[in-house]
Amino acid sequence: MNARTTAALAWGGVLLAGVLWGGGALVAQFLIDGGIAPHSLSLARFALGMPLLWWLHWQATRRAPVAHAEWRHLTRREQGHVVGTGAAMALNVSCWFAGIAHLGAALPTVISICCAPLIVACVSVLRGYEPFGARLLGGLVLALAGVLLLVMPAAGWGALPTGYGAGLAWSFGSAVCYALVVLGNARMPARVPAVTASAWGMSAAALCMLGVAVANGITWPEGTAQWTGAAYTGVATTSVAYLAFAWGARRLSPTAAVVGTLIEPLVAAWLAALWLAQPMAPRQWLGAALLAGAMLLLVRRNRGIV
C-alpha cells in the first residue's frame, strides 16, 4: 500500500469516527433527557463497546499473531501509557455527557472537538515537539476569538442561564481529555495493533467508569428505544468509531487527526438544529469558522508549509 493510499484511508477512518460521534451526541442527549445519568451512560457505552473490540482482537491475533505485542511484553511505562489513555477516554466521554446534560448536544460537542487541536498544539510546543512560530501564534489568536464567540451567551455575560457555567466547564474538561486521548493514540507503542490497543484502552475506561457509577448509583436504560440508543453509543460510537480513529491517528500527525474530527461538531450541530430545534446562533457559527481557520493554519504548519 503506497503512502497516498495509506493517508487517504487514515483520513477516512478519522472522518468516519467524527461522523459517528456527531450522531452520538444527539443519541446521548436523548438518553440523558430520558433520565440516564451521564456517568451511567458512559459506563454503558464502554461496557457495550468492549465485546466487539475484544472479538476483533482475538480474530486478528488468530489470523496474524504479532510477536512481542501481548500485555506481558510491554514495559511498565508502556502499560501505564495504555491505561492512562483509557482513563482519559473515560473522562473525555463523561465530561462530554455532563456538558450535554447542561447545554444540549451541539455546543459541548463543538467546544470539545474544536478546542482539542489547540491543546495538542500547545502541548507539542511545550514538550519541544514543534517550534513556536507566527503560524502557531496566528492559529491561537483565531482560536481564542472563535472560542469567545462560541461560548458567549445570547444575552451577554451578565446573568448566566442556570447551569451554563457548569456546562462550559464540563465541555472544556472534555476538550482537555480528548487532547490526551489523541496524544495517547499517536504515541501508542508501534508494535501493538490498533485493535489491541483499543481493546485494552476500552477495558481501562470501562473499569474507571464502573467505579464512578457504583459510587454514584447506576441508572439503567428503560424500554426498547433507550436500550437501542445505548447499544448505538456502545457499538457505533465506541467500538467502531474509536477503532477507526485509533487506526487513522497512528498514520497522521496528532494535530491532523484532531482536525479531521472537526466534522463531528458540524454533524452534531446540523442534526440538533434539524431534529431538536437547537440551532446555533450566527455568532456561534462564526466562532466555529474561526476555529476551523485556526486548525487549517496548524495543519499547514504541521506539513511544513510556510
From TrEMBL:
Annotated organism of origin: Variovorax boronicumulans
GO cellular component: membrane
One Pfam family, short name: EamA
Database matches in PANTHER family: AMINO-ACID METABOLITE EFFLUX PUMP-RELATED, INNER MEMBRANE TRANSPORTER
Top-level taxon: Bacteria
Subcellular location: Membrane
Membrane topology classification: Multi-pass membrane protein
Record has Magnesium as a keyword: no
Keyword Transferase belongs to the record: no
UniProt KW keywords: Membrane, Transmembrane, Transmembrane helix
Identification of the protein by name: DME family drug/metabolite transporter
Main location class: membrane
Membrane-spanning intervals of the chain: 7-31, 43-61, 82-103, 109-129, 136-157, 163-183, 195-218, 230-249, 256-277, 283-299
Lineage, broadest ranks: Bacteria, Pseudomonadati, Pseudomonadota, Betaproteobacteria, Burkholderiales
Domain EamA, chain residue ranges per copy: 14-151, 167-299
